[in-house]
Amino acid sequence: MNSGQVDSNEVREKETERGKRGIVFTDNSPFATLKSVPISAVKMNDGFWKARMEVSAQAGIPSLYRLFKEKGIFDNFIRVYKKGYAPRRGPFFTDSDVYKWVEAASFALQSEDSSRLKDMLDEVIDLIIPAQDEDGYLNTYFVEEKARERFKNLKVYHELYCAGHLFQAAVAHHRATGEEKLLECAIRFADHLCKVFGPGKRDGFSGHPEIEMALVELYRETGKKRYLDLSGFFLDQVGFASLKEVIGHAVRAMYLACGGADYYAETGREDFWESLTRQWESMVKTKSYITGGIGSRHSGEAFGAPYELPNEGAYAETCAAIGSIYWNWRMLLITGNSQFADVMEKTLYNGFLAGVSLSGDRYFYVNPLLFSPQSLFSNQTPPPWNRGGYGNRMLVSGRREPWYDCTCCPTNSVRMLSSIPGYFFSLSKEGIWIHLYDNCSLDWHLEDGTKFSLIQRTKYPWQGKVDIEVYPEKEKDFSLFLRIPGWCKGMEALVNGERVSPKLANGYLKVNRVWKKGDRLTLNLKMKTEVMVSNRRISENRGKVALQRGPIVYCFEGVDNPGIPILEASLKIDKDKGSLVNLKESYYKDLLGGIVALKMDGAIPDPSELDSPLYRSFEEERSCRFKSVSLTAIPYYAWANRKLSDMTVWIPYAL
Amino acid sequence: MNSGQVDSNEVREKETERGKRGIVFTDNSPFATLKSVPISAVKMNDGFWKARMEVSAQAGIPSLYRLFKEKGIFDNFIRVYKKGYAPRRGPFFTDSDVYKWVEAASFALQSEDSSRLKDMLDEVIDLIIPAQDEDGYLNTYFVEEKARERFKNLKVYHELYCAGHLFQAAVAHHRATGEEKLLECAIRFADHLCKVFGPGKRDGFSGHPEIEMALVELYRETGKKRYLDLSGFFLDQVGFASLKEVIGHAVRAMYLACGGADYYAETGREDFWESLTRQWESMVKTKSYITGGIGSRHSGEAFGAPYELPNEGAYAETCAAIGSIYWNWRMLLITGNSQFADVMEKTLYNGFLAGVSLSGDRYFYVNPLLFSPQSLFSNQTPPPWNRGGYGNRMLVSGRREPWYDCTCCPTNSVRMLSSIPGYFFSLSKEGIWIHLYDNCSLDWHLEDGTKFSLIQRTKYPWQGKVDIEVYPEKEKDFSLFLRIPGWCKGMEALVNGERVSPKLANGYLKVNRVWKKGDRLTLNLKMKTEVMVSNRRISENRGKVALQRGPIVYCFEGVDNPGIPILEASLKIDKDKGSLVNLKESYYKDLLGGIVALKMDGAIPDPSELDSPLYRSFEEERSCRFKSVSLTAIPYYAWANRKLSDMTVWIPYAL
């Protein structure tokens, strides 16, 4: 079914070399400030992210591979070219999960030259390609009698969404391996789309965005401008320029925004930029959790109204957090403004990372900010006279799963973790940008081609000190741009032990000098436990606080607080200083993969209070006895890795 | 299609006289403590409920009659016997709404002998009856080609639910008018059900309970025990005895519990009683709003987990509140325990009554405890790439509607309001029970037949003093049982001006003596504004209070607090006394139909604070300036009768 032909009249404008392009390749984008640094140029050393990447590559990626086999998801491809091989299984968008896995494995290959991974990847790609139709169409759901329905219902079915994930996978695979087979498959399908859709051809857009950003990246990889134009066509069909806030299905909103940002980076369309900034403001000012989680409504997996951010009822889908990271990364590449990196970092360490187990092979779909196993009892026994009716509240189990019927979050999570090194650095004419901090080394070049390497040494995110050694191939005048995180209230920087006066531009400390081999830059970011409050309009959080230390948002989990009904506890805050009482911040090497846990004074009601009525008078409540206790908080991302217990991010305080 | 025949071998065990039976007729129920007093025996005088009943009878009932005509809901009956008359319109359960309306009109006829109402009622009943099939089956959805699907999918379709509403309407109509035509129609259908369902016949139960209580009442009206047995059969099929908590769809849970209670009142089945008390405890202790509203989840219109009681996200369907009143009324009749009357009263004045506009012809489906018009802006413009996906959050508009596509709440609301007088009094061997307080008179008899009348004079619910004059036809030794509401912290009672020592039994003050004509009993219920708090497990309400005065729960509505961002305000509470500061309670005759409004001191943030970030440090927040203001609260039931503005029941406090 596969013609194996690529249009021979077309010459790729640029050849790429293996491992030389970043995840979002903005090097030739006229409206981007920053250029990409590929994953392969960054080596993660022992530290926070390396541990997570390793379990994901060694447990997560192979586990999904096995589950695809077990659930017949690979077979969906085979059955297209082997009649009667197997029945089609899973939802109509299962192809996209395989493509996301291919992308994840391709990213992982840039970090580690694993033959085991390469073999799996080759096997899967070789399963996919023969399923392509002669005209370039590829989707395992719309085959046989359903082939007649291709492109008939773009709003409901995810053909363009699946196509987009194929394109992203193909680009990632090409960048990782230099091999062209999957890229050629993507090009054939993209060319088919260009024949079907566009001005004067068929109208329409995808009900689930994704194709928009994928087409721009395929344009960047191949130089074929028609892909960029088709992306713009779809974005205009949606009416992207007129969107005023983030709204509706959160993952879709994020992916669409990514497409809009990518298109802007290439074209500078002003109305797109205005739409992007309006949407971003609405998200960051009114529709985000403190974890960076977004999309508060279970119903429709959607953004709520401004300030509608329930804690127990939060949806905050893992995929939506990933989508926000993708979008903010693009906004950062366009502007070089750290406000986008702040959202990205906050979401990486909290809203996203909570979605993945410490073992790397289990995932949350929904990420509540308050959880009680007690809530489950009602969920588990639907009454006999009721026909379902719980909606997707069923998903909040407090247990991460290796797989979901709609398994977007697992595949997205391994994809995100494999790509982490790609978000650490950027390049501009002026020098090197450092967005994230962790033990790692960079082996790359300056914009003029001067070879350049760098080593980061730090205990980030547990400590705020970052040591950086730079190794330009020769003495060279350029700048290092060091992101000063939004959470940081004080910092100092030293070059070779001497303090430099901080010059902040767009949230980055710019250190310009003639750098030579072995120069050391030390960044001291003041890191302390911050007591955070939320805007009064988040009604549920009035009178409550959350704890944040550096980029890490904390939570109180029952398992660390034995005998304490954590959902009925309150923190003590020193009335005069406004600070926690008896705060102790300690690093526990063996707890939850190594974390800083926090201890502080709090109070719980007398046990006799536990059975108090649902409502009673203030006077009655005032006569209650309370007991002082010490409370323990752990990073939110690490919750639900032990036995099921109560958990809350926001906790009431008493002065 | 209607055979017009009633099984002539059956003789009704009891004849009823017009206007002589209560709404739930427990006079012959072996396991009920209290006997019913019919609506017709109670005359409401100018006061709180009379005003609501009048607008409902004069505006609500006729408005629904017009809307049934306009929407083709009556035509659904006519088209059954006039081929091609009209297409079928509305959801598959529209018959039930007509039956509920018939029941409402029948109740109203017991209060007021209105020929206009009687004419409407006759017209509607004469439309219904010919639609009955020869075998007794009656449902306008399962006709023509759909007739084959009768009773095929009881869990989804509402055939037994509609049947139940027909039976209730028929019983109410018979009790109100003494006419038999609709009752005969109901009997024919019930006999058909008895032929189809039961041990050794067809299994099954209704996905939407209602038939269970209706069959028991039809048994009470006709004496045909097979109806009681069929009710028990359905209840056992559902597994009623093993239910451990209220769970799932709230209206369904309430109606099922009503059926279980009715069946218990007749049979004394101990396992049913245990199930009823377990369910009731779980509802009252963990799953009710302070308004009495229940069913907190939009998703599935369902009860949430224990303590899952979001304010803005509350579903709290008007029908569920009504269902709770029905159930608690049955529990009260069984036990004579005021804890059930407390829930009933709280729900009547708050959770239910908020569902009806002061004009009596507009209704809420959903009753949130916090509302902001700002939330609507996001709801009204679904994004182009999103396929719906808001679920029923769309229903929360802050505006009551005269009709819904699923118009259960409007018809249930007029039914509830028409039946109010039936909930005021009961009878037992020992005497007369007074459950509710309002200006009214009772003209009835004691259990031994001694004629007896009584006049209540009060400004309840605005004042706690109730004057009662009793008129037994002759001097007689019996007791008056006066409910001492759960909200009341202090009371005194005087007979002919002399204090009596209060003897409380099951929450009722029992005043036993030889009563003679003109004896006066004065009850002084201490009524003051109570500052209420909720159980700590309702996370959202931590640090917040709600105001309650007598049975009335208050709310803060923007329209009464001009220039005050009410959702960002807080109350002042005197640290030493634990009370509101500068509280003023005043009756406003012309405001919202006459209410006591509350004024007290509070604080709002400086206007510069309105644009504060979503999250910031406690220290930053502490430096905010606040402004003292006077805040106004109105009864929750009266909200949303003026222009759209913010509203909240729970409000943070500062000591």
From TrEMBL, chains A, B:
SUPFAM superfamilies: Six-hairpin glycosidases. Residues 41-421 form the Non-reducing end beta-L-arabinofuranosidase-like GH127 catalytic domain. One of its GO terms (molecular function) is hydrolase activity. Residues 530-652 form the Non-reducing end beta-L-arabinofuranosidase-like GH127 C-terminal domain. Residues 431-527 form the Non-reducing end beta-L-arabinofuranosidase-like GH127 middle domain. Keywords: Hydrolase. One of its GO terms (biological process) is carbohydrate metabolic process. InterPro entries: 6-hairpin_glycosidase_sf (IPR008928), Beta-AFase-like (IPR049174), Beta-AFase-like_GH127_C (IPR049049), Beta-AFase-like_GH127_cat (IPR012878), Beta-AFase-like_GH127_middle (IPR049046). The keyword Kinase does not apply. This is Glycoside hydrolase family 127 protein. It comes from Aerophobetes bacterium.
